[in-house]
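ok so heres the complex, four chains, lmk if somethin looks off
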Amino acid sequence: MAQERAGEAGEPATGDVSDRVYAELLTRISEGEFAAGERLFEQALARQLGVSRTPVRDALKRLSAEGLVDTTPNKGAQVVSFTAEDTAALYELRAQFEPVACRLAVPRLGEEDLAELEDLDARMQAIVAGGHDPAELTGLNNAFHAIFVERCGNRHLAIALQALFRPAIVTRTFRQYDPRSLERSMQAHQQLVEAARAGDGEWAEAVMRSHILSTRHVTGHPGTPDD
Amino acid sequence: MAQERAGEAGEPATGDVSDRVYAELLTRISEGEFAAGERLFEQALARQLGVSRTPVRDALKRLSAEGLVDTTPNKGAQVVSFTAEDTAALYELRAQFEPVACRLAVPRLGEEDLAELEDLDARMQAIVAGGHDPAELTGLNNAFHAIFVERCGNRHLAIALQALFRPAIVTRTFRQYDPRSLERSMQAHQQLVEAARAGDGEWAEAVMRSHILSTRHVTGHPGTPDD
DNA sequence: CCCTGCCATGTTGCATGCAATCTTGCAGAG
DNA sequence: CTCTGCAAGATTGCATGCAACATGGCAGGG
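and the predicted structre for the whole thing:
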């Protein structure tokens, strides 16, 4: 859900079933169904998803390349586990690089992208207004941020940035959502949409930077919202 | 040849044969044996390397995730081809980020790493002094730069940076080596080793930045040396 | 002569079988 | 009681068979 877009930015194109499995595993990881450090067995997943081991294997390899699972030669894959320092560093890097991607992307956004941003924003606000479902919100938020990364204009920068950002979906699950920060994030998203509509990359960059920084120092304790 | 280190930084660990195939394809691509845009057929490569299609498939997927080959759903993989703008942007990003990684890495380098840096530097100088073999030099240079990236202290930053840098090995093959820039690069490498020995991250950062920038503006024409 | 539709070939993608390796539990010696 | 060695189970990694899709050539019609 929300990751069902065929080609995000990297080279996701593999097969048909393979992509389904990948998407499934991705959402399961992001929704916290798999604990950090939990081993992922090919055969078990294959049975569960009603497919062969091959596409599962492919998906795990892909997740491994993206840094979402660790694989050891003859032992298989397990969900990454982060130390507090890792998480902090991750946010630090994000705060530095994502705004840049944002600035680069804004002038390149088409009407389609803008519409999607608005749609995602609206859906997130709807969730916040009603009953909170953190998992679903995480997915939408990822999609929201992904748009800027994907459209930054340089394939390899996009790949590199996604390598940085994707692991965050693992850490995020372990935090609660506090209403105050959440509201602030929603406002930031709205402002991002506005800046994007205005085609003002620098504005968007600034908003994105403050958006991320605002979540950084609360990292760990009371709970960061979706950034 | 220089890529034979088991685990670079990302999650390379797969199998035994699989890694061999990956390394082989990587060097072939970097040495320009495969033209840009050339299709890579699984079966053909499998026959050539005396293995099954499976490890070849794995290796191609890995290269795809790293942005070295493009894959289309039912068509397979082909070597990436860059526009001039892509290459320029790549160097731009490199100039921004690699020095940072370098600064972070230097304080973390152990005696072993320093020795390897010196060794690589020495071997590159030997090649320059004798008959030039650009291909071999490229491999050594990649290994040299990789050390800084790998030791930067953050796994995910390392992955992200490698996503940026690895594609450069494709573009580099298409340039000639001009003695003047080459000499300058060698000096930069030496200075990097010195800075690393001194544990001076900022110095190393500055050297690395100028090192990369010195190669940037000649990109395309007369030929950049190995950066 | 050019264009369109079909058919044959080739290639990828998925499923499955087998061997090598690692892990886990137990038995036996100290 | 603890530690070591072994053996059985389990899991990954590699090889191969089969079906689906894409590509290229050829024939037929305009």
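quick notes: Chain B touches chain A through 33 residues (CB under 8 Å). thats all i got rn
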